[in-house]
Specification:
139 residues; globular; 26% strand; 4-stranded antiparallel sheet; disordered N terminus
């Protein structure tokens, strides 16, 4: 697990794709266009695509509805969403970076889950394409 110490604060950096309402792209309770993108992502990321859902993620156990999902590195997020960055950006998604206490992080083989505490805001939030690079493949 990657940890950094800055100004006496220890925590794991977690890279999460989310919109201005702190919702991830798989959350389908948004407007119709965003909901459509969420279903499209879920369909593309199912069935042996190397994008297991949380319940099928190796090593990711014990998460609850209080957990949200992200990645342990920027490169893992870029790889996961490769081919989707343009569509995600067009729907208002950004890359948010959180500093999370290690006790609040569950680590799977691809994703991490963490509890976003009340009032916990990202330390950085930036354009998804500039943060993760260009798509290297088409979807």
């Amino acid at each position: 697990m990657s940890e950094r110490r800055t100004e006496g604060v220890t925590g794991m950096l977690v890279y999460r794709v989310e919109d201005s309402n702190d919702k991830g792209p798989y959350n389908n309770d948004a407007n119709e266009a965003v909901e459509s993108l969420g279903w499209e992502l879920q369909e593309a990321h199912n069935h042996g695509s190397g994008h297991p859902g949380p319940r099928h993620e190796r090593g990711l156990r014990g998460f609850t509805e209080s957990h949200v999902f992200g990645f342990a590195s920027r490169s893992e997020a870029a790889q996961w969403f490769d081919g989707w960055l343009g569509k995600l950006a067009a729907h208002g998604y950004r890359l948010a970076v959180y500093r999370v206490p290690p006790r609040d992080v569950l680590r799977g083989s691809n994703q991490v889950a963490f509890i976003r505490r009340l009032g916990h805001k990202p330390i950085v939030s930036c354009d998804i394409r500039s943060a993760l690079g260009a798509d290297t493949r088409e979807v």
